[in-house]
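Checklist before submission:
- one chain only
- standard amino acids only
- sequence pasted in full

Submission:
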Amino acid sequence: MHSDLLKRFLNYLAVEKGLSRNTLESYERDLRKYFSFLESKGPDDITQQDVLDFLTRLSEEGMAAPSSARCISAVRGFHKYLLTDNLTTNDPTINVDSPHGWTRLPKTLSSSDVETLLNQPDLKTTLGIRDKAMLEVLYASGLRVSELVGLRLQDANLERGFVIIVGKGSKERAVPLGEVASARLKEYLDRARPLLLKGQACDAVFVSSRRRQLTRQMFWERIKHYVRKAGITRNVSPHTLRHSFATHLLDNGADLRAVQAMLGHSDISTTQIYTQVSRERLKRIHEKYHPRG
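Returned file contents:
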């Protein structure tokens, strides 16, 4: 029964809410974990205590607060859907609060580390020109890696220096690129991309030597390569550059609402975590340099 209800719920999210494939997969993973915990209980039999016990289980398994909050959000959405569609008269999540706070702050790189990383691609090679453009665009815009590899030619307006992104929930936003990223992207489009495609048609901006859209996994591997080359010993992912983008903007006085718009966050509380990163950095500086630190 759970499986049938899950299919109906995911179809509702796809058709009515327009959620992306990645988000739908995330919902499905979280809800399958929930159903496994409940075993054979039907929707009308699930109690608030069951939901609280599920939260406890997530905590015992070491799941971080943001992941637990996402999981409970999926559970809450599922029960709300059942209620709205008259598939149950019971919503056990009404008075259940989401886990608060982050167990870990987002990992970021210093400005100097970012500069070192961005300078690693070899601009004498076709792939180096492509990778340089990708890294510069990622750091200049704070895109999610799925948004970066999903860029289409019609999404990039180099004359005005921005890209159009269709993010979570099919929400569209315009994100500035800045002069450096725009110049590197133009160089890639003019010089490297035609050599990679070898005459084959493709509307993806970033393509592989196999003449098709670069995948997230391929780009992940390229970043790991350049991190090693740069001598950066900490763990760095494409998302680290997104975190660094937001933190560095706020460090330099950017307005929180503007950063929220560029990141594509629907809730400003999601963006506010980066102000905490900045506060932690200032605290470390104070402790290091203040005579009474």
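Reviewer check: Residues 30 and 71 are 5 Å apart (CA to CA).
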